[in-house]
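Milestone M4 deliverable, item 7.
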Amino acid sequence: MTVPPPPGPPSPTPSPVDPVPPPEPAPYPVPGPADPTAPPPSGPQPV
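Output delivered:
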């Protein structure tokens, strides 16, 4: 008769991965980084 191995620690059951909710739109326009390729503002430009 073989001796059964001692019961080990219970295997952790992987928790179900919750779907990531889409990010909520900002209530105000978020200023992005300055775009160097943006055209200069209209009007007289300093020389």
